[in-house]
Design goal:
Distance between the termini of chain A: 17 Å
Radius of gyration of chain B: 22 Å
Radius of gyration of chain A: 23 Å
CATH class of the largest domain in chain A: Mainly Beta
Number of helices of chain B: 9
Shape of chain A: elongated
Shape of chain B: globular
CATH architecture of the largest domain in chain A: 6 Propeller
Number of strands of chain A: 31
Helix content of chain A: 10-25%
Largest sheet of chain B: 4 strands, mixed
Order of helices and strands of chain B: HHHHHHEHEHEHE
Number of domains of chain A: 2
CATH topology of the largest domain in chain A: Neuraminidase
Strand content of chain A: 35-45%
CATH architecture of the largest domain in chain B: 2-Layer Sandwich
Number of strands of chain B: 4
Number of domains of chain B: 2
Structural class of chain B: alpha+beta
CATH superfamily of the largest domain in chain A: TolB, C-terminal domain
Number of helices of chain A: 5
Largest sheet of chain A: 7 strands, mixed
CATH topology of the largest domain in chain B: 60s Ribosomal Protein L30, Chain: A
Distance between the termini of chain B: 15 Å
Structural class of chain A: mainly beta
Oligomer: heterodimer
C-alpha cells in the first residue's frame, strides 16, 4: 500500500489556469441526477491524441475512463463504434457532428511527454452551448495511468453531480497466500491488486476507517486472534482491546474515533466499544449467547449485530449504549453479517436459504425484504459502495471464493478476482 | 519423560531397533543376526543408559558385548531425549474430538478422549496445551470464529473440572480457517468441526 499511496501523491494535479472549473458544492444538482437515475449525461470519449510511444498508454487511459464513467451511473458513454462519423479533431471541436450522434458532452484528451513523465491534459465540452466546462492536467509515470483515468473520472462525476465518483475507491480483502490469508487491496474495478501483509498466518475482515487512511482487521499474528490497525503510512498497531482469547469483527464509528468489536473476555463472545484515544472499553451486551459482526450505523447512533440468543444466529439492532435491542431478521434460521447502506436506511445481510447463503436487503423504514442474489454457492460478507448503488461480496460460485460486485438491485454482477480464494471484502468510503 | 511415554512414538521404534541389534549380536540366531551388526547409526555410546530404562536393561544383560562390539559412536539420541513438541504433536499424543453440526456439546466419547488427554498431561507436566476450536465451512466467517471459541471453552471447562490448572491451558479459535480436510461435503465437514489439543 505504501508505494501506491506515495505514488498517488507524486501526481501533481494542476488546475489549468483560466478554465474556471465550476465545481458544484455538495448540494449541487448532482443529487437530482443521482437520485433520478435514468437521466444520464450522454458523453462521447474519443481516442486521445498521444505522442509517439504513448499509444498503448493512451488507449488504457481512454478505456479505463469509459468503463469508470459507465459504471458511475451518471454518464452514458456513447458507443465508440459511432465516433467515425465525427471528423478528426483539428482545431475546432465539431460540436454539430457530436450532436448528430446524441453526445451532450465530449472530451478532448491529449498525452504528451514531459521529461520522461506523461502529461495528460483533459478537457470537457458541452456540445449544445459549445463551451468548455472542465479542464485539468495530470502528470505522472505511465505505470499509474489507470489511477489517472480514475481520478479524471471522479472529477467528471464531481463536475456533473457535486459528488465525487467511485473510480478512485478501493476494495480491501483477504486472500490465501502461502500458508496464510493475507490482506490485499485492489481498485474498485479489480485491477491493480497489491498485497499489504506478509504474515504467513490468518488475517481477516479488513474494514476501512471512514477517512480511508486506516484499515482495522483481525489477525492471528499474536498467539490468538486480535484486532490490529494498519495506517496508510505502513504503521501497524495493536488495537487496545480488552483481554480475551478472541477479539474480532471490528467496525469503525462514523467519526473514526471508536471501534466496535466482539470479545470473549467475559466468557463468550460479547460486543464492546473501544474509544481509540483513551483506550477505554465499554461493554454493550451481557448474554450467554454469541454476539458478533457488529456494524455502526452511518449516523453513529445504532449498532447492527448478530446474536444466537434465540438459538440460531439472527440480526439485531441496538443503541450504542447497548439498550433498545430488537431483532430485525424475521425469516430463516441463519442470518448474519449485517451491513448498513451509506444512507442508513437499509441493512444488507446474509441468510441461509436452501443450504446456501444469499444476500438480502432490508429496507428499514418499510420493513421490505429483498433477495439480491441467485445462482449456485454462498454469497457472503456484503459491503456497500460509498454511493450506496453497489455491493461487494465474496462468492464461491466457481468452487472457490472470489470477490464480486453487483448493483443494489442485484443486477450487473461483476467478478473482480479470479481463483484467488478471496474473502471478506470492504469498499473504501 | 517416562519410558512408557516413549513407547508411543517413532522415536521409540528407533530405540527398539537399536536394542534389537544390540541384543542380536550376542544372542542365538535370529533374523537380525544376519544383518551387519556394526551399523554406526545403531551403535550405542558408553553413556547410553542415560537415554532411558530400555537401553539400560539391555546393557545390564549384555554389558561386555555392548562395549566391545560397539565402540563409542553417535546414535540418534538427541531427537528422542528432546522429543520435540513438534514431534509429539505430529505423533498425535493428544487426541482430537469432533462436534456435531453447529453444536458445542461433549458426548460420552468426547469426555473419555479428553480424560485420556488430561491423564497424559498430568504425566507430562513439562508441557502446556492449546485447545484449538475449529468449525466446518458452512457458517459465516465471523460467527464461526465465535463458535470455535465456544467449542474450545467447553473443552477447557471440562478439563478444568478434571483438575487441569488454568495456567497450563489456553484456547484459540480458528473458526473455519484451518480445516483438517479441505473439501466440501459432510465427510470433510464432520472432520473439520473439532477441538484439537496442541502441546506447547
Amino acid at each position: 500500500m505504501h508505494r501506491s499511496i506515495r505514488s498517488f501523491f507524486l501526481f501533481t494535479v494542476v488546475l489549468i489556469a483560466g478554465y474556471g472549473v465550476a465545481a458544484q458544492g455538495p448540494d449541487g444538482i448532482g443529487d437530482t441526477i443521482n437520485k433520478t437515475g435514468p437521466v444520464r449525461i450522454k458523453i462521447a470519449i474519443p481516442d486521445a491524441t498521444a505522442v509517439d510511444g504513448f499509444g498503448a498508454v493512451a488507449r488504457e487511459l481512454i478505456e479505463t475512463l469509459r468503463a469508470d464513467l459507465e459504471f458511475s451511473g451518471v454518464y452514458d458513454v456513447i458507443d465508440p463504434a459511432l465516433y467515425w462519423k465525427v471528423p478528426p479533431a483539428g482545431g475546432q471541436i465539431p460540436h454539430d457532428d457530436w450532436l448528430s450522434i446524441d453526445a451532450d458532452e465530449v472530451t478532448q484528451i491529449k498525452l504528451s511527454n514531459r521529461s520522461g513523465r506523461i502529461d495528460v491534459v483533459a478537457e470537457l465540452f458541452e456540445n449544445n452551448s459549445r463551451t468548455r466546462t472542465f479542464g485539468k492536467r495530470y502528470a505522472g509515470t505511465k505505470e499509474l495511468i489507470r489511477r489517472v483515468a480514475h481520478m479524471l473520472a471522479d472529477e467528471l462525476v464531481l463536475h456533473a453531480t457535486g459528488r465525487r465518483g467511485l473510480a478512485t475507491t478501493r476494495i480491501a480483502f483477504t486472500s490465501k497466500h502461502g500458508k496464510g490469508k493475507e490482506l490485499f487491496l485492489m481498485d474498485y474495478d479489480g485491477y491493480r491488486i497489491r498485497r499489504l501483509t506478509t504474515t504467513s498466518t490468518i488475517n481477516l475482515t479488513p474494514v476501512w476507517s471512514p477517512d480511508g487512511s486506516r484499515l482495522a482487521f483481525v489477525s492471528w499474528r499474536g498467539k490468538q486472534p486480535g484486532i490490529y490497525i494498519m495506517g496508510d503510512d505502513g504503521t501497524l498497531q495493536s488495537a487496545a482491546a480488552i483481554d480475551g482469547e478472541l477479539n474480532a469483527a471490528p467496525d469503525w464509528s462514523p467519526d473514526g474515533r471508536k471501534i466496535v468489536y466482539s470479545s470473549d473476555t467475559d466468557g463468550n463472545s460479547d460486543l464492546y466499544i473501544l474509544d481509540l484515544a483513551s483506550g477505554r472499553n465499554t461493554r454493550l451486551t451481557r448474554t450467554q449467547a454469541i454476539e458478533t459482526a457488529p456494524a455502526y450505523s452511518p449516523n453513529g447512533r445504532e449498532i447492527a449485530f448478530t446474536s444466537d440468543r434465540s438459538g440460531t444466529p439472527q440480526v439485531y439492532l441496538m443503541g450504542t449504549d447497548g439498550l433498545n435491542v430488537r431483532r430485525v431478521s424475521s425469516t430463516g434460521s441463519y442470518n448474519e453479517s449485517p451491513a448498513w447502506s451509506p444512507e442508513g436506511d437499509k441493512l444488507a445481510y446474509v441468510s441461509r436459504m436452501d443450504g446456501q447463503f444469499e444476500i438480502l436487503v432490508l429496507d428499514i423504514p418499510t420493513g421490505q425484504l429483498t433477495k439480491l442474489t441467485k445462482g449456485r454457492g454462498n454469497k457472503e460478507n456484503p459491503r456497500w459502495s460509498p454511493d450506496g448503488r453497489h455491493l461487494v461480496f465474496a462468492w464461491n460460485r466457481t468452487g472457490t471464493y472470489d470477490i464480486y460486485t453487483m448493483r443494489d438491485d442485484g443486477s450487473d454482477v461483476r467478478r473482480l478476482t479470479r481463483g484467488g480464494d478471496c474473502f471478506t471484502p470492504d469498499w473504501s468510503r | 519423560m517416562k519410558g512408557a511415554d516413549l513407547m508411543r512414538g517413532r522415536g521409540t521404534i528407533l530405540i527398539l531397533i537399536a536394542v534389537a541389534m544390540l541384543v542380536g549380536t550376542g544372542c542365538p540366531p535370529r533374523t537380525v543376526d544376519t544383518q551387519p551388526a556394526a551399523d554406526p547409526e545403531a551403535a550405542s555410546p558408553p553413556d547410553a543408559p542415560s537415554m532411558g530404562g530400555g537401553i539400560g536393561r539391555v546393557e545390564d544383560s549384555e554389558p561386555s558385548i555392548v562395549t566391545e562390539s560397539f565402540p563409542s559412536q553417535t546414535i540418534e539420541s538427541a531427537p528422542l531425549v528432546n522429543d520435540s513438541i513438534e514431534e509429539l504433536n505430529a505423533q498425535g499424543v493428544l487426541k482430537t474430538i469432533y462436534f456435531e453440526y453447529d453444536q458445542s456439546e461433549l458426548d460420552e466419547d468426547d469426555r473419555m478422549t479428553i480424560q485420556d488427554n488430561v491423564a497424559w498431561l498430568e504425566n507430562n507436566t513439562a508441557y502446556n496445551v492449546v485447545i484449538e476450536g475449529h468449525c466446518d465451512e458452512r457458517g459465516t466467517i465471523e460467527y464461526n470464529l465465535a463458535l470455535g471459541d465456544r467449542r474450545a471453552k467447553v473443552v477447557r471447562d471440562y478439563m478444568r473440572s478434571l483438575g487441569m490448572p488454568d495456567g497450563r491451558m489456553r484456547v484459540v479459535t480458528w473458526g473455519e480457517e484451518r480445516p483438517e480436510i479441505e473439501r466440501t461435503g459432510e465427510a470433510a465437514w464432520s472432520r473439520n468441526r473439532r477441538a484439537e489439543f496442541i502441546l506447547e
